[in-house]
Amino acid sequence: MNLIMVVGISPGVGKSTFARRLGEALHIEVHHLDALFWTPNWVEASLEEFSKSQQDMIPRDQWIIEGNYKNTFQIRLQRADTIIYLLD
Q1: Can you give the pLDDT of all 88 residues of the chain as single tens digits?
Q2: Which candidate in 17, 30, 50, 83 could, as Cys together with 23 as Cys, close a disulfide (CB 3.0–4.6 Å)?
Q3: 55 forms bridges with which residues in the sheet?
Q4: Domains in the chain, CATH or no CATH each
Q5: 68 HSE (CA, 13 A, CB side)
Q6: pTM of the model
Q7: In angstroms, what CA-CA distances link 58 with 2, 5, 12, 13?
Q8: Angle, alpha carbons 38-41-44 (nearest 5°)
Q9: Would you say 24 and 31 are in contact if contact means Cβ atoms under 8 Å apart?
Q10: In 3-81, beta strands by DSSP E
Q11: H/E element holding 56?
């Protein structure tokens, strides 16, 4: 369990909190997709920029990536060894 996706049924289900706590417990860096998607002044990153930031991240040996963002789900899925899906 070194390449972990944390996704969930809806906003507010606790993905960020869970991912942060899991990262602390496992000593693995957590990446929040909202931080990659929203650039300064709440401007959306282009799909190309957003995809590239994830493609640059996934070759690492360890990561926890938190967030749904279905349009780039496959990027993370291709390397993830664990998927945690949170329900209400």
Answers
A1: 999 999 999 888 999 999 999 999 999 999 999 999 999 999 999 999 999 999 999 999 999 999 999 999 999 999 999 999 999 8
A2: 30
A3: none
A4: 3-86 (3.40.50.300)
A5: 11
A6: 0.93
A7: 11, 11, 25, 24
A8: 30
A9: no
A10: 3-8, 30-32, 38-39, 43-44, 63-66
A11: helix 47-57
